[in-house]
Amino acid sequence: MADKELYTLEYVIKSSPPILYNFVSTPSGLAQWFADNVDINRDVYSFFWNGNEERANVVEAMENEFLRLQWESSGADEYFEFRIKKDEITGDTALIINDFAEPDEMDDSKALWDSQIQVLMQRIGGS
Questions:
Q1: What pLDDT, in 10s, does the model give residues 10-41?
Q2: Gap between the Cα atoms of 11 and 93, Å rounded
Q3: What pLDDT digit, counting tens, does each position of 81-93 carry?
Q4: Which helix (H) or strand (E) covers residue 52, if one does?
Q5: How far, in whole angstroms, is CA 85 from its chain's centroid?
Q6: Which listed CATH number (3.20.20.140, 3.30.530.20, 3.20.20.370, 3.40.50.720) goes with 5-124?
Q7: Helix (H) or strand (E) run with residue 7 in it
Q8: pLDDT in tens, 88-118
Q9: Is the CB of residue 9 less than 8 Å from the CB of residue 112?
Q10: Coil, strand or helix: which one is 92?
Q11: Cα 101 to Cα 3: distance, rounded to the nearest angstrom
C-alpha cells in the first residue's frame, strides 16, 4: 500500500470568515454540505453518510481561522484541515483544504472536494 500524500486545494468563497468557520466547524453547518448528519461530543466529530458513521478527532482549532481533524481510521500523520484566509488587499475569503489521499486516488479525492465545495458555496449563497 502506497503512503498517502498531502495535497492542498484553495477556493474563494464569498463569505466572511466567521460565517465560513460556522459552516466548517459546527454540526448544523457541516450537515448542510459535508455529510448527511454530524454530531460532536467533546472533541470528537461523528459524520454520517448513508447510515454509516466515520469519527474524527479535533487535532487543533482556532476560531474563524482553522479546524484540523484526524479520522480515527487514518494514519498518525494524516489529517484533513479547513483553513480560512482573508486577503487584506482584495477582501476575498479563501477556504484552503489540506487532505491526504493515495496517489492513485488523488484525482477522485480532489473531484469529491470540488463537488462538496460547490454545495457549500450554494448554501452560503456565493459562487
A1: 999 999 999 999 999 999 999 999 999 999 99
A2: 8
A3: 999 999 999 999 9
A4: strand 52-62
A5: 14
A6: 3.30.530.20
A7: strand 5-13
A8: 999 999 999 999 999 999 999 999 999 999 9
A9: no
A10: coil
A11: 8
- Give me 9's grid cell: 486545494
- Distance of alpha carbon 80 from its chain centroid, rounded? 7
Q: Is the pLDDT of residue 127 over 70?
A: no
Q: Return d(Cα 5, Cα 66) in angstroms, integer.
A: 20
Of the candidates 26, 27, 11, 32, which has an alpha carbon nearest to the alpha carbon of residue 95? 11
| Domain residue limits, the chain | 5-124
Residue type at position 16: S
The bridge status of strand 37-41 relative to strand 44-49 is: antiparallel
- Give the whole-angstrom CA distance, residue 112 versus residue 120: 12
